[in-house]
Amino acid sequence: MNARAIGGIIRKDLKVVSQNKGVMLTIIIPPLILFVILPWIVTLMPYLDELLGITSDDLNEFQQLISRMSPGMQKEFAAYDQYQGFVVYFLVYIMASFFMMIPLMVSSVIAADSFAGEKERKTMEALLYTPTTDRELFIAKLLSGWLAAIAVAFVGFGLYVIMANAAAWSQMQRIFFPNAMWLVLIFWVVPALPGLGLGVMVLVSSRAQGFQDAYQMGSIVVLPVVFLLIGQVSGVLSFGVTLVFLLGLVVWLLDGLLIWLGSRSFRRGRLLGA
Amino acid sequence: MNTSVITINQLTRRFKETTAVDQLSLEVHAGEIFGFLGHNGAGKTTTVRLLNGVIEPTSGSMRVLGLDPQVDGPALRSRTGVLTETPSMDERLTAWDNLSIYADLYGVPRSGVHQRINELLAEFDLADRAQERVGGYSKGMKQRLALARALLHKPELLFLDEATSGLDPIAAHHVNDLIERMARRENRTVFLCTHNLVEAQKLCDRVAVLEHGRLVALGTPAELTRQYVRRLDVDIEVHEEQVEGTLQVLRSLPRLVVGAPVRTNGVLTATLAGREAIPDLLEALVHHNVRVYRIAAQEANLEQVYFALHGEKESVQ
Fold first, then answer.
1. What share of chain A is helix, strand, coil (3-state, %, to 5)?
2. Could you tell me which of A14, A94, A229, B66 has the fewest CB atoms within 10 Å of its CB?
3. pLDDT digits over A17-32, tens only?
4. Which parts of chain B have pLDDT scores under 70?
5. Which SS3 state, helix, strand or coil, does residue B39 take?
6. How confident is the model at residue A226 (pLDDT cuts 50, 70, 90)?
């Protein structure tokens, strides 16, 4: 395995992406909104009840939602007052689903640019005439998306730890975030998530005409996370350490399947449409 | 004896219903500039891809630099350089970044990367714009940079696919000079795909003509013109007072002179049926007391070969 060549392709892909304002905005803006701005909005919401039209009925609905959660979570929420419960529910549990979208989205954007975008810009052919093997090309293309997605997720998580605790300080009066579930999410699930975006993108990129086409075809990958979010909001799912760990296991298994399928069909000639 | 750098035997590549390369067999010798001629879609680019192990053949075999491209693709590609039809440069990156990334991919020794890039940028007259994004370059500059990239690892065999396509005459002349220098001074073998026949005539030691993926002619430009172009234009200069008489003599020799002779700036030009008609023509002119000051055969060129092969001009074969 030629590590220098793999490093060269990763360097090339990341440099090219970093020079593309459209792609960079897609990578930077959603995490900024989610991890920096949203915590402040959430913590301010209880104080804006009149402005936002929050009524006692809404607060009762929130209590009913808690009553549908697992006994462990009900016990956790019993220790909070109404405002604290709302902040913890949103910043800790609902945000977990939003957080999972970030590595999926970043890996999909970079993979779309790296595979279909390169084909569209007609820069792929020169790459295919280099002494790299098909396997090295495949690994390099996966790693560039994977590393970038994990880096964005980890930096985002660091920012979010600071922002969530700072924004909720007046309600919580202590560092309440991250909890054990988030640590499992960050160190077990997040590293697996880019594999889904990348695996799907490898499969769709040979059929896509260009970056936009590939990105749209590949965006189907966020659907499972949307279902998780709906499950949480409706109270059907309660994110705990065990559930998140199992979720990670499923994602790793899917990664393995998608990457196996992708590697089977990855031939340099196919990247030229041959 | 010529050392064979490329040996192709009955090579065929099909894409669904289309046969891009059809039963192609040829050899390319070490150190020569080999022209691969054919119009768009003739199968030139597909052949380059096959010879570099980028795509697989449907049938047939090939050896390039003694290697099988399908089995030893990476080892082979480390010894070949390819200039693709479009420059295929990352336009968001600088020229320096483009070259340094490809130096990693081609395994140029780390200690020599800076020196090699500086050498090439200077050689291709790009040194003062090395830190600019390639997107701002002219087409000629991009093509020169792509050529520099193809030479980064000092390949033994260079594939140039339409190297001067779309360039202005000065830029094309510069690129052709570079190609000639690489082949003649640095003893590299050059496989030149082109549909520019003047360029091929000037640069190539031997040429192959491809039509719908099939090889239709192979040889030196001189061999091909002898083989395929029978007609011969000759310029005849006679005393001014004898021009009209000479025209009449030429018109009276339909067995030797094909078509109507023309007079341009005092020089008569006649199209003969072939080289063997020259002695007979001279004999006829002398017989009619024409004082011939000069008779010169115009060299047939690849353009005439190409048209003769493709039947797009009247042929006297």
1. 80, 0, 20
2. B66
3. 888 888 888 888 988 9
4. 1, 311-317
5. coil
6. confident
Which residue has 């924004």 as its token pair? A167
Interface A-B: count of C-beta contacts within 8 A: 84
DSSP B317: -
Contact residues on chain A for B82, CB-CB shorter than 8 A: 126, 129
- Does the interface ipTM go beyond 0.85? no
Residues of B in contact with A272 (CB under 8 A): 49, 54-55
Query: Average pLDDT of chain B?
Result: 88
Please give the pLDDT value at position A49: 67
Residues of chain A with Cβ-Cβ distance to B78 below 8 Å are 131
Tokens of B91: 């336009």
Question: How much is the pLDDT for A53?
Answer: 67
Q: Which of B26, B163, B158 is CA-nearest to residue B87?
A: B163
Selected residue of A12, A129, A144 to mutate for chain B interface (largest B Cβ count, 10 A): A129
β-partners of residue B39 are: none
The C-alpha of A140 sits at a distance from chain B's nearest C-alpha, in angstroms, of 11
Name, in order, each residue with C-beta under 8 angstroms of B280's C-beta and a sequence gap of 6 or more: B256
Q: What is the pLDDT of residues A250-259, one digit of tens each?
A: 999 999 999 8
How far apart, in Å, are the Cα atoms of A255 and each of A53, A147, A189, A258, B83? Answer: 44, 15, 11, 5, 37
How close does chain B come to A211, measured CA to CA in Å? Answer: 15
Peptide bond into A39 cis (omega under 30): no
Please state, in angstroms and rounded to a whole number, the distance separating the CA atoms of residues B10 and B273. 36
What local confidence, expressed as pLDDT, does residue A163 receive? 93
Q: What is the structure's pLDDT at B190?
A: 94
Could you tell me if B89 and B98 are in contact, meaning their C-beta atoms sit under 8 angstroms apart? Answer: yes
Q: What are phi and psi of B154, to 5 degrees?
A: 50, 65
Sequence-ordered list of residues with C-beta below 8 angstroms from that of A115, at least 6 positions apart, any chain:
A141, A201, A202, A205, A208, A214, A271
Radius of gyration of chain A (CA): 21
